[in-house]
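Lecture notes, unit on binding sites. The following record was shown on slide 14. It pairs a sequence with nicotinamide-adenine-dinucleotide.
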Amino acid sequence: MASVARVDLDGNPIKPITICMIGAGGFIGSHLCEKLMSETPHKVLALDVYNDKIKHLLEPENAHPWSDRIQFHRLNIKQDSRLEGLIKMADLTINLAAICTPADYNTRPLDTIYSNFIDALPVVKYCSENNKRLIHFSTCEVYGKTIGSYLPKDSPLRQDPAYYVLKEDESPCIFGSIEKQRWSYACAKQLIERLIYAEGAENGLEFTIVRPFNWIGPRMDFIPGIDGPSEGVPRVLACFSNNLLRREPLKLVDGGQSQRTFVYIRDAIEAVLLMIENPARANGHIFNVGNPNNEVTVRQLGEMMTEVYVKVSGEPKLETPTIDVSSQEFYGVGYDDSDKRIPDMTIINKQLGWNPKTSLWDLLESTLTYQHRTYAEAVKKAISQASATS
Ligand SMILES: NC(=O)c1ccc[n+]([C@@H]2O[C@H](COP(=O)([O-])OP(=O)(O)OC[C@H]3O[C@@H](n4cnc5c(N)ncnc54)[C@H](O)[C@@H]3O)[C@@H](O)[C@H]2O)c1
Ligand SMILES: O=c1ccn([C@@H]2O[C@H](COP(=O)(O)OP(=O)(O)O[C@H]3OC[C@@H](O)[C@H](O)[C@H]3O)[C@@H](O)[C@H]2O)c(=O)[nH]1
């Protein structure tokens, strides 16, 4: 813990607080817990059904200086009477819990809607009734598709930022038809955002809504068959990592033409810490958190990851590094896609002075170094065991 007095953006000393973090055992939660433990004096009540990704912070044998500042509570917020008590014990609640992998949106739409809307309702209610501040994790997917995607393919307006840059207070939310169940997630997230906003307007709830734009880095999702189900389909970073580790071609859904901006998890966590410690600047706001400078098509992402993996693993590139696959084959019926995601950074810049720092090349190098170090041996073993039994 830092010994120098820590001050907020307005020069006021930061008082230690207790944070009830729901979904603390996930990708973002694990990085946020790490940051809070190593750089701040705050306490964390960490709630999740799993704790594998934060085990290193919890194990008493590591004799961490923070061992009395983090407490894990294994619970499912769908049905646990301890939830309200834990929210009451804290000054701030951060809700990260959600089903948030696209492979689930069209194949498990009910679970997706329940997880992202119904299960979040009691959290909002308890915060509002007990006058507790809430930071809720939404998504960039609430913007859906860009206005530009509906223009004719050859329209010069498609190049005009007014038709694609996503602004918190201006851009519309454009989803596909109901049978495109991909949008079940975005729609549930949009409704919970509207509910939180209404709680703020009608009942004075102090809230901040975060819209992450493809945060990536170590510990994201799982490698199928190693630390997750063999048939599971994680988000793209883990899918491509899995292909690289197994020396299989990367699968480009519908040719990999969709565009994304990727931000390094460590940069994004800095933004969340600023929100936590500057409530007067963050309350009542919705923040895009992404890196507009790191835009690529999914095909380009695959090419970059292939190149970086050759460097960090020392293994040669495959003759056919990528293959195209249809979205129907990869995700099943009802899949649809966001075409392009460029976050407008005006609001977060003005309120919190935050800017992302890490280039896509740098973040891929550190992330793939981690993937190789963590998984290469286990994947090799799994492959040789499978070939011995076949
Ligand atoms: N990673 C990103 O780029 C990204 C992008 C947009 C939005 N988000 C949002 O940020 C949040 C966190 O995302 P993540 O990438 O860390 O995902 P994650 O899946 O790694 O983490 C979510 C965690 O919530 C837990 N959880 C889910 N349901 C629960 C329940 N009923 N009770 C208790 N715990 C439960 C899970 O076990 C998991 O550990 C989600 O709300 C997600 O929608 C993330
Ligand atoms: O193996 C793969 C996996 C994914 N993809 C493509 O890669 C792109 C990115 O896919 P991801 O799995 O990372 O998920 P998306 O960016 O579509 O959505 C994510 O964004 C915001 C969050 O709310 C969620 O974490 C998730 O919905 C999509 O176009 C997808 O079709 C591939 O081409 N091949």
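Take-home: The chain has one domain: 98-382.
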